[in-house]
């Protein structure tokens, strides 16, 4: 197996049950409080920080020192525009040129902060860039504005990778970049070597895509810069425990990631806070699930019978081999 560089988790998941967990704390838990709680998960060794939210009240050096003291490292930043009501009609697609400029400038400040922190991965989830009604936006203009903005952002610091995390909708009814094909079209137009894609498993499912297929397309046409593992029922962004609904599709994704040579962090974008789950226990289960599925991939890797079955599209044979590996039975020839 290709060895990825570690596990990270959604930091805001660890805000749950603050009154009980931080009993006696005479202030609101801050970013480093959340980091320390996340770091108590065995095997979790990286975190992503939302910009500007998680930088509030801290300098970059204070945060990096705090991460080191907790035994985790910075994986990267994720831009967050939704906390500013001015971006409700869009950040890069906003009809107001000054608002678009503000969105670009805050993204550049995020890149500068990330550089000070020693990181090199910025994830852009443009959830507010889309539309809700027919005759609401000029599609060509919105596309041109977004490509121009992302090109400017990518040029700001070529040493930092800019990764687009696509999602079909939410909060807008339709996202400007809702799927892997549209995202790859945008990246082709941007045409910058420091750009790529972050695949979120639940987003891919409800874009009606097969995760392994999306990963193969990204690896062929761009760069696979991030993997957000979770699960769901394909109707919305459920954020469930990895492999809990689609274990075989997750195993196939991990199998293809190995073929692609992906060696980045596996980030758990899950929502234990939705149902009041213990976030430490939930994250521990995520890691155990992926480790178990990685072991299945290791059994499948290099199996001549599986390769032959896939080459012939012999689904009964390929499924028999995969299920034997999954349930720890002897593998068919």
Q: Can you give keywords for this protein?
A:
two-stranded antiparallel ribbon; single chain; alpha/beta; eight-stranded parallel barrel; 333 residues; TIM Barrel; globular; 2 domains
Write the layout of secondary structure elements.
Elements: E1 7-9, H1 18-21, H2 31-39, E2 44-51, H3 60-70, E3 73-79, H4 97-116, E4 121-124, E5 130-131, H5 139-156, E6 161-165, E7 174-175, H6 180-190, E8 195-200, H7 201-206, H8 211-221, E9 224-229, H9 247-260, E10 266-268, H10 279-300, H11 304-311, H12 315-326
Parallel strand pairs: 1-2, 1-10, 2-3, 3-4, 4-6, 6-8, 8-9, 9-10
Antiparallel strand pairs: 5-7
Helix pairs in contact: 2-3, 4-5, 5-6, 6-8, 8-9, 9-10, 10-12, 11-12
Task: Produce a short descriptive summary.
With 333 residues, this protein is an alpha/beta fold.
Largest sheet: 8 strands, parallel, barrel
Task: Please give the number of β-strands.
Answer: 10
CATH topology of the largest domain: TIM Barrel
Listing every helix as H and every strand as E from the N terminus to the C terminus, the arrangement reads EHHEHEHEEHEEHEHHEHEHHH
- How much of the sequence lies in strands comes to 5-15%
Explain how this protein is built:
The protein folds into 2 domains: 285 residues, Alpha-Beta Barrel (TIM Barrel), CATH 3.20.20.150; 32 residues, no CATH class. Helix content is 44%, strand content 14%. The strands form 2 sheets. It has an 8-stranded parallel barrel, surrounded by 6 helices. It has a two-stranded antiparallel ribbon with strand order 5-7. Helix 4 links the parallel strand 3 and strand 4. The relative contact order is 0.12.
């Amino acid at each position: 197996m290709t060895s990825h560089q570690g596990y990270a988790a959604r930091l805001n998941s660890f805000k749950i049950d603050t009154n009980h967990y931080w009993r006696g704390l005479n202030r609101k838990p801050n970013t480093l409080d959340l980091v320390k709680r996340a770091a108590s998960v065995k095997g979790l060794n990286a975190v992503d920080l939302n910009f500007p939210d998680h930088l509030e009240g801290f300098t970059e050096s204070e945060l990096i020192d705090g991460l080191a003291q907790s035994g985790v490292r910075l994986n990267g930043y994720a831009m967050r525009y939704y906390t500013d009501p001015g971006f409700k009609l869009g950040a890069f697609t906003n009809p107001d040129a000054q608002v678009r400029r503000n969105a670009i400038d805050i993204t550049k400040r995020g890149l500068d902060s990330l550089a000070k922190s020693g990181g090199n991965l910025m994830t852009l989830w443009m959830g507010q860039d889309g539309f809700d009604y027919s005759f609401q936006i000029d599609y060509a203009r919105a596309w041109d504005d977004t490509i121009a903005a992302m090109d400017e952002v990518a040029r700001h610091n070529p040493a930092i990778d800019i990764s687009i995390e696509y999602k079909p909708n939410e909060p807008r009814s339709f996202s400007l970049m809702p799927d892997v094909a549209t995202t790859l079209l945008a990246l082709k137009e941007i045409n910058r070597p420091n750009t790529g894609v972050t695949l979120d498993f639940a987003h891919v499912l409800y874009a009606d895509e097969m995760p392994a297929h999306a990963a193969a397309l990204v690896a062929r046409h761009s760069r696979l810069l991030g993997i957000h593992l979770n699960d769901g029922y394909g109707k919305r962004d459920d954020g469930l425990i990895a492999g809990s609904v689609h274990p075989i599709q997750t195993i196939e994704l991990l199998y293809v990631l190995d073929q692609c040579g992906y060696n980045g962090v596996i980030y758990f974008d899950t929502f234990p806070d939705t149902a009041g789950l213990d976030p430490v226990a939930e994250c521990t289960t995520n890691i155990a699930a992926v480790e178990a599925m990685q072991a299945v991939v290791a059994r499948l890797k290099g199996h001549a019978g599986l390769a032959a079955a896939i080459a012939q599209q012999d689904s009964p044979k390929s499924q028999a081999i995969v299920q034997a590996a999954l349930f720890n039975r002897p593998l068919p020839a």
